[in-house]
Amino acid sequence: MTIESRPLRVSFYTPMLQMGGAERWIFSLARHFRCLQPDVLFYANHFQIDDATYAEASSLFNRLEPIDVKSPDVEKHRDSARASAAVVMWGWAPFPDVNKPIIYVSHSADAMRSDHNLEFADFVAAVSLTAVDALQESRRDECEVIYNGIEFDRITPRFGRQAVRHAWNIGDKKLILYFGRFHPVKQCKDVLSALRYLPDEYVAMFVGEGHESESIVKKAERIAPDRVLMCSSSAHVGDFLAGADIVVLPSNSEACPLVALEAWGAGVPLVSNDLPYLDEFERRHETQMAERYTDDPSEMAKAITRAARWNAETRAALRGIVWSNYTASAMAAHWERWIIERIVWGVYHDRVYPAAKLLQ
Fold first, then answer.
1. pLDDT digit string, tens, across residues 225-243
2. By C-alpha distance, which of 80, 93, 102 is closest to 47?
3. CB 3.0 to 4.6 Å from 7: which of 37, 122, 140, 343, for a disulfide?
4. Cβ distance 304 to 248 under 8 Å?
5. How does residue 95 score in pLDDT terms, banded at 50, 70 and 90?
6. How far apart are CA 272 and CA 254, in angstroms?
7. How many CB atoms lie within 10 A of CB 314?
8. Burial category of 7 from C-beta neighbours within 10 Å (exposed 0-12, middle 13-18, buried 19 and up)
9. 3-state secondary structure of 90
10. CA 57, 60, 63, 67 torsion-angle sign
11. Are 205 and 333 in contact (CB under 8 A)?
12. Which stretches does DSSP call E strand in the chain?
């Protein structure tokens, strides 16, 4: 057996480089890897990238490389991945043959999103059992489940509840928080519809950006002009969570949503569309994790009023569950162990990497 002196590198592919859940997942792994070194971050070049996200990605990876998904430069990308032990990919992407083990990750509960790249995959992982179910049946048994984890620095308040609520001028009103992408699949405008069924003591805050930003503002002006606050997306959400009374997740498809993990980690009650991921988490931890509703905004309003009555003990229990099970460092450690023991040692069995000794 030979000793390989260079660092053990792993590259990633994302179909877009914007600050969504999957991108925060990449960055968390890159920050918390101890034994693996993030190498190249490949990304599809048909989405605009904001400066802050690009700068953060540049600080975490050796190199960023755009891919023209319609006509990828196979030789160039193969050469870029030459130093990597494996390439981790997800989402829609005609990834070229890089002659490296390819790990496909299912982040979705949507079967159509999770199936069409499995032909490229040598190994399969998923962020929850719900995401495993989205894979074609022939690949489910081999799939490694590695739950998402959150960055606690991101959800830790800097100013605190009293200060931010004073700045927002909302007094003692109950604040409903939506944070994330403004996209039709997230159904965030349903929060505005729900406000019509709630008393004036409830106000809503939207934190994020996306295709529906303008239509959210217009609907808010029409339905509840004095009850809606709009804020730009932020890499730090601790003060938004500190000031909130309820977090809402109206999306119609989720597998292991970071929004839910961050709400639980901050001790804020969650109101969620009734989706299979909640069944999975509640079975896993044998406790209620959210107030559920099914699409109808009037039912969302009822779930919000129920969530507003959650006591401190319940909130603390959910916070403890996240601290014990869903940290970014624990997620990264699981990924490293699996990649090194199963993939690197399995595929490159004639080499021993010095970094791997940290896991022994």
1. 899 999 988 889 999 999 9
2. 93
3. 37
4. yes
5. low
6. 10
7. 14
8. middle
9. coil
10. negative
11. no
12. 2-3, 9-14, 37-44, 63-67, 84-89, 102-106, 123-126, 144-145, 174-181, 202-209, 228-231, 246-249, 270-273, 291-293, 351-352
SS3 content of the chain, % helix, strand, coil (to 5): 40, 20, 35
Identify which of 210, 231, 237 has the alpha carbon closest to the alpha carbon of residue 150. 237
Can you give the pLDDT at residue 255?
Answer: 94
Which residues, listed in sequence order, are joined to residue 84 by a DSSP beta bridge? 9
pTM of the predicted structure, to 2 decimals: 0.91
The dihedrals phi and psi of 172, each to the nearest 5 degrees, come to -100, 15
b/e code 217-230 from CB counts within 10 Å (16+ = b): eebbeeebeebbee
Looking at beta carbons, which pairs linking 108-116 to residues 24 or more positions away fall under 8 Å?
108/134, 108/253, 108/255, 109/133, 109/134, 109/253, 109/254, 109/255, 109/275, 109/276, 109/277, 110/134, 110/253, 111/135, 111/136, 116/92
- Counted residue by residue, the chain has a size of 360
Q: How many Å apart are CA 77 and CA 52, to the nearest integer?
A: 25
Tell me the two tokens of residue 188.
């965030």
Q: Is 322 exposed, middle or buried (0-12, 13-18, 19+ CB in 10 A)?
A: buried
How open is the CA angle 291-296-299, to the nearest 5 degrees?
Answer: 40
| Tokens found for residue 159 | 């100013």
Q: Is the dihedral of CA 206, 239, 256, 359 positive or negative?
A: positive
Backbone angles phi, psi at 65, to 5 degrees: -135, 115
What is d(CA 8, CA 36) in angstroms, rounded to the nearest whole number? 5
Please give the pLDDT value at position 161: 97
pLDDT digits (tens, 9 = 90+) for 162-215: 999 999 999 999 999 999 988 888 999 999 999 999 999 999 999 988 888 899
Predicted confidence (pLDDT) per residue in 144-173, tens digit: 999 999 999 999 999 999 999 999 999 999
Q: What is the 3-state secondary structure (H, E, C) of 240-252?
A: HHHHCCEEEECCC
Q: Is 180 helix (H, G, I), strand (E, B) or coil?
A: strand
Q: Would you say 262 and 239 are in contact if contact means Cβ atoms under 8 Å apart?
A: no
